[in-house]
Protein backbone atom coordinates (compact mmCIF):
# COMPACT_ATOMS: atom_id res chain seq x y z
CA UNK A 1 0.00 0.00 0.00
CA UNK A 2 1.42 3.38 -1.06
CA UNK A 3 0.33 6.79 0.19
CA UNK A 4 1.71 9.89 -1.57
CA UNK A 5 1.88 13.15 0.35
CA UNK A 6 2.88 16.46 -1.26
CA UNK A 7 4.01 19.53 0.67
CA UNK A 8 3.31 17.72 3.91
CA UNK A 9 4.51 17.68 7.52
CA UNK A 10 5.84 15.08 9.95
CA UNK A 11 2.51 14.85 11.80
CA UNK A 12 0.64 14.07 8.59
CA UNK A 13 3.19 11.36 7.77
CA UNK A 14 2.61 9.74 11.18
CA UNK A 15 -1.14 9.77 10.58
CA UNK A 16 -0.62 8.16 7.17
CA UNK A 17 1.46 5.39 8.79
CA UNK A 18 -1.31 4.65 11.30
CA UNK A 19 -3.96 4.62 8.56
CA UNK A 20 -1.85 2.33 6.41
CA UNK A 21 -1.35 -0.18 9.24
CA UNK A 22 -5.07 -0.24 9.97
CA UNK A 23 -5.91 -0.65 6.29
CA UNK A 24 -3.78 -3.79 5.95
CA UNK A 25 -4.98 -5.20 9.28
CA UNK A 26 -1.78 -4.83 11.35
CA UNK A 27 -2.32 -1.97 13.79
CA UNK A 28 0.44 -3.20 16.14
CA UNK A 29 4.02 -2.07 15.61
CA UNK A 30 6.40 -5.03 15.54
CA UNK A 31 9.58 -3.29 14.39
CA UNK A 32 12.89 -3.48 16.25
CA UNK A 33 14.78 -0.41 15.00
CA UNK A 34 14.72 2.66 12.75
CA UNK A 35 16.99 2.65 9.71
CA UNK A 36 17.68 6.10 8.24
CA UNK A 37 19.16 6.11 4.73
CA UNK A 38 20.70 9.39 3.56
CA UNK A 39 21.24 9.29 -0.20
CA UNK A 40 20.54 11.02 -3.48
CA UNK A 41 17.93 10.32 -6.14
CA UNK A 42 20.34 8.30 -8.26
CA UNK A 43 21.21 5.74 -5.57
CA UNK A 44 17.89 5.75 -3.70
CA UNK A 45 16.41 2.74 -5.53
CA UNK A 46 19.36 0.41 -4.89
CA UNK A 47 19.67 1.46 -1.25
CA UNK A 48 15.95 1.05 -0.64
CA UNK A 49 15.93 -2.40 -2.25
CA UNK A 50 18.85 -3.53 -0.06
CA UNK A 51 17.12 -2.21 3.07
CA UNK A 52 13.86 -3.92 2.10
CA UNK A 53 15.65 -7.26 1.73
CA UNK A 54 17.44 -6.78 5.04
CA UNK A 55 14.14 -6.01 6.77
CA UNK A 56 13.11 -9.66 6.38
CA UNK A 57 15.70 -10.42 9.04
CA UNK A 58 15.34 -7.14 10.95
CA UNK A 59 11.82 -5.65 10.77
CA UNK A 60 12.37 -1.92 10.86
CA UNK A 61 10.97 1.46 9.93
CA UNK A 62 13.05 2.71 7.02
CA UNK A 63 13.30 6.45 6.48
CA UNK A 64 14.90 7.42 3.17
CA UNK A 65 16.12 11.02 3.19
CA UNK A 66 16.67 12.40 -0.33
CA UNK A 67 18.00 15.93 -0.48
CA UNK A 68 16.88 17.46 -3.75
CA UNK A 69 18.91 20.23 -5.37
CA UNK A 70 16.94 23.41 -6.06
CA UNK A 71 18.05 25.14 -9.24
CA UNK A 72 16.37 28.55 -9.06
CA UNK A 73 17.02 31.09 -6.27
CA UNK A 74 13.31 31.19 -5.44
CA UNK A 75 13.21 27.44 -4.84
CA UNK A 76 16.26 27.64 -2.59
CA UNK A 77 14.57 30.09 -0.24
CA UNK A 78 11.32 28.12 0.01
CA UNK A 79 10.95 24.80 1.84
CA UNK A 80 8.90 21.80 0.86
CA UNK A 81 8.58 18.23 2.05
CA UNK A 82 7.16 15.43 -0.09
CA UNK A 83 6.67 11.95 1.32
CA UNK A 84 5.80 8.49 0.06
CA UNK A 85 4.52 6.08 2.69
CA UNK A 86 4.77 2.33 1.97
CA UNK A 87 3.31 -0.35 4.21
CA UNK A 88 2.52 -3.99 3.72
CA UNK A 89 4.12 -6.10 1.00
CA UNK A 90 5.60 -3.03 -0.73
CA UNK A 91 7.75 -2.29 2.33
CA UNK A 92 8.98 -5.80 3.14
CA UNK A 93 8.27 -6.70 6.76
CA UNK A 94 8.38 -3.14 8.07
CA UNK A 95 7.42 0.38 7.05
CA UNK A 96 9.09 2.66 4.53
CA UNK A 97 8.86 6.43 4.25
CA UNK A 98 10.62 8.18 1.37
CA UNK A 99 11.26 11.82 2.26
CA UNK A 100 12.19 14.34 -0.45
CA UNK A 101 13.46 17.63 0.91
CA UNK A 102 13.51 20.89 -1.08
CA UNK A 103 14.91 24.32 -0.30
CA UNK A 104 16.18 25.40 3.09
CA UNK A 105 14.81 22.32 4.82
CA UNK A 106 17.66 20.34 3.22
CA UNK A 107 19.99 21.78 5.89
CA UNK A 108 17.61 20.75 8.69
CA UNK A 109 16.87 17.13 7.84
CA UNK A 110 17.16 16.08 11.49
CA UNK A 111 14.06 18.16 12.36
CA UNK A 112 12.05 16.13 9.84
CA UNK A 113 13.43 12.73 10.85
CA UNK A 114 13.22 13.14 14.63
CA UNK A 115 9.37 13.00 14.93
CA UNK A 116 9.28 9.88 12.72
CA UNK A 117 11.67 7.73 14.81
CA UNK A 118 10.26 4.71 16.60
CA UNK A 119 10.04 5.33 20.35
CA UNK A 120 12.44 3.38 22.57
CA UNK A 121 14.12 1.71 19.59
CA UNK A 122 17.73 1.96 18.38
CA UNK A 123 18.53 4.15 15.39
CA UNK A 124 20.97 3.29 12.59
CA UNK A 125 22.00 5.84 9.94
CA UNK A 126 23.45 4.62 6.64
CA UNK A 127 25.12 6.75 3.97
CA UNK A 128 25.45 4.67 0.75
CA UNK A 129 27.28 7.56 -0.94
CA UNK A 130 28.64 11.00 -0.01
CA UNK A 131 29.13 10.19 3.65
CA UNK A 132 30.36 13.01 5.94
CA UNK A 133 33.97 12.92 7.11
CA UNK A 134 32.81 12.90 10.74
CA UNK A 135 29.55 10.91 10.89
CA UNK A 136 29.14 11.30 14.66
CA UNK A 137 29.04 15.11 14.40
CA UNK A 138 26.59 15.09 11.51
CA UNK A 139 23.09 16.29 12.56
CA UNK A 140 21.54 12.99 11.45
CA UNK A 141 24.43 10.88 12.73
CA UNK A 142 24.02 12.39 16.19
CA UNK A 143 20.59 10.72 16.43
CA UNK A 144 21.95 7.19 15.88
CA UNK A 145 23.69 4.52 17.92
CA UNK A 146 25.32 3.05 14.81
CA UNK A 147 26.58 4.97 11.78
CA UNK A 148 27.29 2.98 8.61
CA UNK A 149 29.39 4.36 5.76
CA UNK A 150 30.96 2.86 2.65
CA UNK A 151 34.45 4.09 1.70
CA UNK A 152 34.30 1.98 -1.46
CA UNK A 153 31.99 4.62 -2.96
CA UNK A 154 34.41 7.49 -2.19
CA UNK A 155 36.57 9.20 -4.79
CA UNK A 156 39.80 8.31 -2.94
CA UNK A 157 39.03 5.30 -0.75
CA UNK A 158 42.47 4.93 0.87
CA UNK A 159 42.60 8.59 1.87
CA UNK A 160 39.04 8.25 3.14
CA UNK A 161 40.20 5.53 5.54
CA UNK A 162 42.72 7.93 7.09
CA UNK A 163 39.95 10.50 7.57
CA UNK A 164 37.71 7.87 9.15
CA UNK A 165 40.48 6.89 11.57
CA UNK A 166 41.05 10.51 12.61
CA UNK A 167 37.34 11.13 13.26
CA UNK A 168 36.40 7.69 14.64
CA UNK A 169 33.71 7.60 17.32
CA UNK A 170 32.44 4.39 18.97
CA UNK A 171 29.48 3.26 16.89
CA UNK A 172 31.04 4.03 13.49
CA UNK A 173 31.43 1.18 11.01
CA UNK A 174 32.01 0.67 7.31
CA UNK A 175 30.66 -1.77 4.74
CA UNK A 176 34.21 -2.22 3.43
CA UNK A 177 34.97 -3.80 6.81
CA UNK A 178 31.83 -5.95 6.64
CA UNK A 179 32.89 -7.33 3.25
CA UNK A 180 35.98 -9.03 4.72
CA UNK A 181 34.17 -10.89 7.54
CA UNK A 182 34.36 -14.27 5.70
CA UNK A 183 38.06 -13.68 4.99
CA UNK A 184 38.83 -12.92 8.62
CA UNK A 185 36.91 -16.01 9.77
CA UNK A 186 38.71 -18.27 7.29
CA UNK A 187 42.18 -16.93 8.10
CA UNK A 188 41.57 -17.28 11.84
CA UNK A 189 40.39 -20.86 11.33
CA UNK A 190 43.46 -21.66 9.22
CA UNK A 191 45.83 -20.39 11.92
CA UNK A 192 43.98 -22.47 14.54
CA UNK A 193 44.94 -25.64 12.67
CA UNK A 194 48.71 -25.15 12.95
CA UNK A 195 51.11 -24.35 15.76
CA UNK A 196 53.66 -22.02 14.28
CA UNK A 197 54.82 -18.42 14.20
CA UNK A 198 53.73 -16.05 11.44
CA UNK A 199 56.67 -14.10 10.04
CA UNK A 200 55.23 -12.17 7.07
CA UNK A 201 51.91 -11.52 5.34
CA UNK A 202 50.95 -10.35 1.85
CA UNK A 203 47.45 -9.14 0.94
CA UNK A 204 46.61 -9.02 -2.76
CA UNK A 205 43.62 -7.25 -4.31
CA UNK A 206 42.32 -4.43 -6.47
CA UNK A 207 44.13 -1.12 -6.34
CA UNK A 208 41.28 1.10 -5.14
CA UNK A 209 39.59 -1.36 -2.81
CA UNK A 210 39.60 -0.24 0.86
CA UNK A 211 38.68 -3.76 2.01
CA UNK A 212 42.21 -4.88 1.09
CA UNK A 213 43.74 -2.16 3.27
CA UNK A 214 41.41 -2.95 6.16
CA UNK A 215 42.26 -6.66 6.01
CA UNK A 216 45.98 -5.86 5.85
CA UNK A 217 45.71 -3.48 8.83
CA UNK A 218 43.75 -6.09 10.80
CA UNK A 219 46.41 -8.74 10.17
CA UNK A 220 49.25 -6.35 11.01
CA UNK A 221 47.52 -5.24 14.19
CA UNK A 222 46.69 -8.75 15.39
CA UNK A 223 49.80 -10.64 14.30
CA UNK A 224 52.34 -7.84 14.85
CA UNK A 225 54.22 -8.74 11.66
CA UNK A 226 55.07 -6.72 8.53
CA UNK A 227 52.23 -6.84 5.99
CA UNK A 228 52.71 -6.09 2.31
CA UNK A 229 49.90 -4.78 0.13
CA UNK A 230 50.15 -5.94 -3.50
CA UNK A 231 47.92 -5.03 -6.44
CA UNK A 232 46.03 -7.43 -8.72
CA UNK A 233 43.35 -7.14 -11.37
CA UNK A 234 40.63 -8.33 -8.97
CA UNK A 235 37.79 -8.84 -8.51
CA UNK A 236 38.02 -7.48 -4.98
CA UNK A 237 40.32 -9.40 -2.68
CA UNK A 238 42.20 -12.11 -4.55
CA UNK A 239 44.73 -13.68 -2.17
CA UNK A 240 46.32 -13.65 1.28
CA UNK A 241 49.73 -15.28 1.71
CA UNK A 242 51.20 -15.86 5.16
CA UNK A 243 54.74 -17.01 5.72
CA UNK A 244 55.09 -19.12 8.86
CA UNK A 245 57.75 -21.21 10.55
CA UNK A 246 55.80 -24.33 9.47
CA UNK A 247 55.46 -23.32 5.81
CA UNK A 248 53.26 -20.97 3.79
CA UNK A 249 49.50 -20.59 4.27
CA UNK A 250 47.71 -19.28 1.17
CA UNK A 251 44.05 -18.32 0.70
CA UNK A 252 43.56 -17.63 -3.00
CA UNK A 253 40.33 -16.48 -4.68
CA UNK A 254 40.85 -15.70 -8.35
CA UNK A 255 37.27 -15.71 -9.65
CA UNK A 256 35.44 -13.90 -6.82
CA UNK A 257 33.37 -16.97 -5.87
CA UNK A 258 35.47 -20.03 -4.93
CA UNK A 259 38.72 -19.86 -2.97
CA UNK A 260 41.47 -22.40 -2.34
CA UNK A 261 43.03 -22.79 1.10
CA UNK A 262 46.56 -24.23 1.05
CA UNK A 263 48.36 -25.23 4.26
CA UNK A 264 51.77 -26.89 4.32
CA UNK A 265 51.42 -30.62 4.91
CA UNK A 266 47.67 -30.69 4.21
CA UNK A 267 45.69 -31.16 1.00
CA UNK A 268 44.25 -28.09 -0.69
CA UNK A 269 40.65 -27.32 0.17
CA UNK A 270 37.98 -25.44 -1.78
CA UNK A 271 36.27 -22.72 0.26
CA UNK A 272 33.12 -20.77 -0.65
CA UNK A 273 33.96 -17.04 -0.56
CA UNK A 274 31.23 -15.58 -2.72
CA UNK A 275 31.14 -11.79 -2.98
CA UNK A 276 28.05 -10.66 -1.07
CA UNK A 277 25.52 -8.05 -2.12
CA UNK A 278 24.61 -4.92 -0.17
CA UNK A 279 21.49 -6.45 1.43
CA UNK A 280 23.57 -9.15 3.15
CA UNK A 281 26.09 -6.56 4.34
CA UNK A 282 23.40 -4.33 5.85
CA UNK A 283 21.72 -7.34 7.49
CA UNK A 284 25.03 -8.29 9.11
CA UNK A 285 25.60 -4.76 10.42
CA UNK A 286 22.10 -4.65 11.94
CA UNK A 287 22.77 -7.83 13.94
CA UNK A 288 24.96 -5.97 16.40
CA UNK A 289 24.40 -2.42 17.58
CA UNK A 290 27.30 -2.14 20.04
CA UNK A 291 30.64 -0.51 19.08
CA UNK A 292 32.97 -2.68 17.02
CA UNK A 293 36.27 -2.54 18.91
CA UNK A 294 38.05 -4.80 16.42
CA UNK A 295 37.22 -2.44 13.57
CA UNK A 296 38.41 0.53 15.62
CA UNK A 297 41.73 -1.14 16.41
CA UNK A 298 42.35 -2.10 12.79
CA UNK A 299 41.32 1.31 11.46
CA UNK A 300 43.58 3.19 13.86
CA UNK A 301 46.57 1.03 12.92
CA UNK A 302 47.10 3.35 9.93
CA UNK A 303 47.34 2.80 6.20
CA UNK A 304 50.75 4.50 6.11
CA UNK A 305 52.31 1.70 8.17
CA UNK A 306 51.58 -0.89 5.49
CA UNK A 307 54.21 -1.84 2.92
CA UNK A 308 53.30 -0.69 -0.57
CA UNK A 309 52.93 -2.76 -3.74
CA UNK A 310 55.58 -5.28 -4.63
CA UNK A 311 57.09 -2.98 -7.27
CA UNK A 312 57.62 -0.10 -4.86
CA UNK A 313 59.85 -1.93 -2.34
CA UNK A 314 61.87 -3.37 -5.21
CA UNK A 315 62.62 0.11 -6.48
CA UNK A 316 63.40 1.27 -2.97
CA UNK A 317 65.81 -1.60 -2.46
CA UNK A 318 67.52 -1.07 -5.78
CA UNK A 319 67.59 2.69 -5.34
CA UNK A 320 69.97 2.89 -2.39
CA UNK A 321 72.27 0.24 -3.83
CA UNK A 322 72.39 2.05 -7.16
CA UNK A 323 72.92 5.37 -5.45
CA UNK A 324 75.64 4.01 -3.24
CA UNK A 325 77.03 1.80 -5.95
CA UNK A 326 78.69 4.67 -7.84
CA UNK A 327 80.92 5.85 -5.02
CA UNK A 328 81.67 2.32 -3.84
CA UNK A 329 84.06 1.49 -6.72
CA UNK A 330 85.76 4.84 -6.27
CA UNK A 331 86.04 4.21 -2.58
CA UNK A 332 87.30 0.75 -3.26
CA UNK A 333 89.76 2.14 -5.75
CA UNK A 334 90.99 4.75 -3.30
CA UNK A 335 91.26 2.15 -0.63
CA UNK A 336 93.31 -0.15 -2.84
CA UNK A 337 95.52 2.75 -3.92
CA UNK A 338 96.07 3.74 -0.32
CA UNK A 339 96.80 0.15 0.65
CA UNK A 340 99.27 -0.15 -2.24
CA UNK A 341 100.88 3.11 -1.23
CA UNK A 342 101.19 2.00 2.38
CA UNK A 343 102.46 -1.36 1.23
CA UNK A 344 105.09 0.26 -0.99
CA UNK A 345 106.05 2.95 1.52
CA UNK A 346 107.60 0.63 4.11
CA UNK A 347 109.32 -1.31 1.33
CA UNK A 348 111.98 1.44 0.93
CA UNK A 349 113.24 1.52 4.52
CA UNK A 350 113.43 -2.25 4.67
CA UNK A 351 116.98 -2.29 3.19
CA UNK A 352 118.49 0.13 5.72
CA UNK A 353 116.59 -1.63 8.47
CA UNK A 354 118.40 -4.86 7.69
CA UNK A 355 121.80 -3.15 7.78
CA UNK A 356 121.88 -2.37 11.49
CA UNK A 357 120.53 -5.81 12.18
CA UNK A 358 123.47 -7.34 10.34
CA UNK A 359 125.92 -5.00 12.12
CA UNK A 360 124.58 -5.95 15.50
CA UNK A 361 124.75 -9.55 14.48
CA UNK A 362 128.41 -9.04 13.41
CA UNK A 363 129.43 -7.20 16.59
CA UNK A 364 128.04 -9.86 18.85
CA UNK A 365 130.99 -12.35 18.34
CA UNK A 366 133.53 -9.59 18.96
CA UNK A 367 132.00 -8.77 22.30
CA UNK A 368 132.05 -12.43 23.23
CA UNK A 369 135.72 -12.69 22.31
CA UNK A 370 136.56 -9.60 24.37
CA UNK A 371 134.69 -11.10 27.28
CA UNK A 372 136.82 -14.23 27.04
UniProtKB/TrEMBL annotation:
Residues 319-355 have a biased composition (Low complexity). PANTHER family: OXPP CYCLE PROTEIN OPCA-RELATED. It comes from the Bacteria. Residues 308-372 are annotated as: Disordered. This is Glucose-6-phosphate dehydrogenase subunit. The lineage of its organism: Bacteria, Bacillati, Actinomycetota, Actinomycetes, Kitasatosporales. Residues 356-372 have a biased composition (Basic residues). Residues 51-165 form the Glucose-6-phosphate dehydrogenase assembly protein OpcA N-terminal domain. Residues 170-299 form the Glucose-6-phosphate dehydrogenase assembly protein OpcA C-terminal domain.
